[in-house]
Design brief:
This protein has helices spanning 13-24, 31-40, 44-55, 61-72, 89-102, 116-130, 137-151, 153-160, 173-185; strands spanning 2-6, 27-30, 80-83, 108-113, 164-168. It is an alpha/beta fold. It binds adenosine monophosphate.
Length: 198
Amino acid sequence: MRLILMGPPGAGKGTQAEALAEKIGGAHISTGDIFRANVKDQTELGQTAQRYMDAGEYVPDEVTNAMVKDRLSRDDAESFILDGYPRTVAQVETLDDMLADLGRPLDVVLALVVDQEELIARLLKRAETSGRADDTEEVIRHRQKVYAAETAPLLEVYGERGLLREVDGMGDVDEIARRIASALESPPAPGALGAVEA
Ligand code: AMP
C-alpha cells in the first residue's frame, strides 16, 4: 500500500505512521526525521535545513524534493507511508511525477483532524522532552500558520482526486489507530478513483 499521512504539526502523524508501517509493511518516510538525522550528523543537507527548521519555516522545495526522490526510488519503497511530505502544492506536482516515473501510484491520503488548541497543547507537552529547537511556543504557533497557508490546501487537491480519507485525530493513540484502520478498509467515496462512468 502507498499512502500519505497528512495533518498539522502535533496531529500525531509520526506516531501513527510508525505503527502503521509496522502493521501493513512498507517504508516509513518522514521528511522531518530525515532532516533531523542530517542536522545531527552535520551533513551539508542538515546545515541547509537547520535554519529553516529552527524558524518553523519549510525547507525549500528543491532541497526537499531531491531528498524524497532519492528515498522513494529505493527498492524498499515499493510500499510506503509518507509522513510530512508533500507539504506544498509544488511538492504534490513533483511527487506525482516521481510516482509516475516509478510506476508506483498512490492508494490513499489519510488526514488526521485535530482541534487547533489541542495541537498547541500537545506540542507544548512534547517540548518538555523532545529537545527539538522548533518546539518553543512561538515557533509552534508559527508552524501552525505555515501549515494553514501552505499545506491545508492540499486536502482539497487530494479530495478532488477522490484519494482523501479524513480521520478524527482526537483521543488516545490506540483509538486513533483503530479509526485509521477502519478508514483504510472503507471503500472509496462515490465518484472517487475507480468509479467508472456508465
Ligand atoms: P516535522 O517533523 O514533519 O514536523 O518537520 C519538521 C520540520 O522539517 C518542518 O517544520 C520543516 O522545517 C521541515 N520539513 C519537513 N518536511 C518538509 C517538507 N515536506 N517540506 C519542507 N520542509 C519540511
